[in-house]
Amino acid sequence: MKKVIKFWAPWCSPCKTYAPTFSKISEKFEGQVETLEVNVDLDPNGLAVIYKVRSIPFTVLVKEDGSIVSKSGNLSESELEELFLS
Predict the structure, then answer these.
(1) pTM above 0.90, yes or no
(2) Of 5, 6, 7, 11, which is least packed with CB atoms within 10 Å of its CB?
């Protein structure tokens, strides 16, 4: 199953704006795509380092074959949906 990981922080204004969009699209693809939200300030597994997060919000798609697609910034619903479908 594909995974989509959203990296964010509570102090990040664009992250706050992006949260409802991510939630809406995550719900739309529930059962088809696994989602994970990682607060970069509380990242004990070092996922932000692994996925080379340089700015937030940052969204990563891990495809079933292990390949990775990443997008930085506040994605629109259509951009995020496209990422979920890729």
Answers:
(1) yes
(2) 11
- C-alpha count within 13 angstroms, C-beta hemisphere, residue 70: 17
The residue whose two tokens read 């997008």 is 71
75 is catalytic: no
Q: Report cis status (omega within 30 of 0) of the bond before 14.
A: no
Residue 54 DSSP SS3: coil
User: Active-site residue among 4, 5, 12, 53?
Assistant: 12
2-85: CATH number: 3.40.30.10
State yes or no: is 35 an active-site residue.
no
Query: Tens digits of per-residue pLDDT, 26-53?
Result: 999 999 999 999 999 999 789 999 999 9
Angle ∠(45,70,68) on CA atoms, nearest 5: 75
Buried b (16+ CB within 10 A) or exposed e, 40-52: beeeeeeebeebe
